[in-house]
Amino acid sequence: MSDLFWLSRPQLAKIARHFPLSHGVPRVDDLRVVSGIIFVIRNGLRWRDAPSDYGPHKTLYNRFIRWSRLGVFDNIFSALVAEAESPGTLMIDATHLKAHRTACSLLKKGMFPAALAAQKAA
After folding, report:
1. Helix (H/G/I), strand (E/B), else coil: 61
2. Rama region for 83: left / alpha / beta (φ>0; ψ in -120 to 50; rest)
3. What is the pTM of this model?
4. 4 backbone φψ class: left, alpha, beta (φ>0; ψ -120 to 50)
5. By C-alpha distance, which of 97, 27, 120 is closest to 67?
6. CA-to-CA dists, residue 36 to 5, 61, 63, 82, angstroms
7. Using 50, 70 and 90 to split pLDDT, how confident is the model at 26?
8. Contact at 8 Å (CB) between 105 and 111?
9. Distance between CA atoms of 16 and 44, rounded to whole angstroms?
10. What is the pLDDT of residues 49-79, one digit of tens each?
11. How many CB atoms lie within 10 A of CB 53?
12. Residue 72 C-alpha from the chain's centroid
């Protein structure tokens, strides 16, 4: 597949400071896994449908869930927005996806800590 998404080394270096430290066994290649996560989310795939070039789908899924619960992606997005030339700019994706009725419980399970904190503050 020639249409796979790969982060460049400079792009990865820009966000790598937000990655949690590895404890015990070293993590597999961050470039491969993060690129795979972005590819799956960008294309709306199931984790199982991730191309094998990104490694095992279970690795992509586990890393995404673990880092989401730790707020790693929230920190990355916040840092990237803060570095932008005009931080007042907000981009909204108009994609419409059907969600299963159990998807509403993701906030309660701690998947998006920043959103949950904003809800409680309001």
Report:
1. helix
2. alpha
3. 0.69
4. beta
5. 27
6. 7, 10, 11, 25
7. confident
8. no
9. 24
10. 999 999 999 999 999 999 999 999 988 888 8
11. 12
12. 8
